[in-house]
Amino acid sequence: MGGFRKVFSGLSLSVLLITFAACSDDQSGESSSSESGELSGEVTMWTASLSGEPFDSYFAEVEKGFEEEHPDVDVVIEDIPQEQMEQKVLTSLTGSDVPDLVNLNTLYVSNIAAQGGLLDLTDLIDEETKNSFLEGPFNAGVYAGSLYALPWYLTTTVSWYNNKHFEQAGIEELPTSSQGIYETAKAISEETGNASYYPVINDGNVIMQKMVSLANGDPIVKNGEAVFEDNQAILEYFEVTQKMYDEGLIPQEAAEGSIQTGQELYMGENVSFLEGGVTFLGPVESGGPDVYEVSKSGPPLNPEDAPVNVDVMNFAVPAKTQNKEAAVELLKYVTNAENQLKFAKVAETVLPSTKKSLDDPYFKEPGDSPKAQGMLQASNALKRAEVLIPPTENSAELRESTKKIFVQNLQGELTPEESLSQLADEWNNSFEKAGEEVTF
């Protein structure tokens, strides 16, 4: 997901809110139904970074299918680069050329909803539709107690490992604890002579998610105050990863933290196991076919009952839509079980958010290829998946400080105790400055 940004396109929050209010009376006079009561008019949908094949053909079918059900409606689909989506939506809300349905990640949903820019769907979506979605992804569209988006496609984490290396080391089960990760990595490195475990850091978000998973139900933040300093599972992870880095079980390149570096090392058989999404194997399949063939997947490297993160892409309706009824119906159509299943098959590496889609044999009996088995593991992980880190105004600062301090811990510049203490201080300062009183 993209990072959290407050973007107002040169306008202040007050100007935006005045603009929304000034247009509310105009909206109330608009009608999107023909005299017969049928939906009519134009409805524009913005997708995020999904241009080109096979997506163009998929969305052409979506357009055709909806227009066949509603002959008086003209669906217009435009693709917007993901990194431009939030700003374009906010900019559109200051004028009259507003899309009717937009594809937003969870951070963008909460940001735009907080500015009054999204239609409250709470009473516009029927209970049957609401209950058709997995609970965790559905809740990603709820902001301040109201529903502003429906979930569309999902990605979640699985573990990937080089089974040839595991067999050489006599490892038959994946580890589910920090100590288990250490013991597994040590056994494999002794056989291969290389580093074996790669902790993905990215921009700090993965480490934050790992901390929530390790806490396993205990909050790491209460009302805007960090409370993870005394959490033994989190402390152990910081201790173990520092020890592994010092012993060469984690490669030095891990300090960079990107999943791309992990892929390159894995492809070259210079690491043996790590965690990532189903998309992880794409470059491996094309760039290291021999490694791909011996790759296997499993659950995340956590206890079986620990929560795992899910990233959610949603669809929402801008508050200034000129065709509310058609926009809501298109929202329900695009996110229904049938269309979500079709999209997942087209995309190949994402998961649907509807329960019925996940019951399809495509997910229950995906085949024996490494990628197919990874999809099976990912769909199984959804049973305990949720958005572990809620969107906050200061989320970029939290991620930045987490990455910085985790790397310092990894490289031994701070003790694990010092790392958690300093991280708690930086988070608390950030929460105080932003006025955030979040709990997660």
Brief overview:
With 440 residues, this protein is of the alpha/beta class.
Mean pLDDT: 91
CATH topology of the largest domain: D-Maltodextrin-Binding Protein, domain 2
Give the % helix: 40-55%
Strand content: 5-15%
Mass-distribution shape: globular
Radius of gyration: 23 Å
CATH architect. name of the largest domain: 3-Layer(aba) Sandwich
Structure class: alpha/beta
Rounded to the nearest angstrom, the distance between the terminal CA atoms is 19 Å
Largest sheet features = 7 strands, mixed
The number of distinct helices, counting runs of at least 4 residues, comes to: 20
Name of the top-level CATH class of the largest domain: Alpha Beta
Write down the domain tally.
2
Low-pLDDT residue intervals, each spanning 5 or more residues:
1-31
Could you characterize the architecture of this molecule?
This protein is an alpha/beta fold and 440 residues long. The protein folds into 2 domains: 13-153 and 311-383, D-Maltodextrin-Binding Protein, domain 2; 158-308 and 388-434, D-Maltodextrin-Binding Protein, domain 2 (3-Layer(aba) Sandwich). The chain contains 20 helices and 15 strands. The strands form 4 sheets. Strands 1, 2, 3, 6, 13, 14 and 15 form a 7-stranded mixed beta sheet that branches. A 4-stranded mixed beta sheet has the order 8-11-7-12. Strands 4-5 form a two-stranded antiparallel ribbon. Helix 11 runs parallel beside helix 12 (281-287). The longest helix is centred in the C-terminal third of the chain and has 19 residues, at 416-434. Residues 1-31 have low confidence and may be disordered.
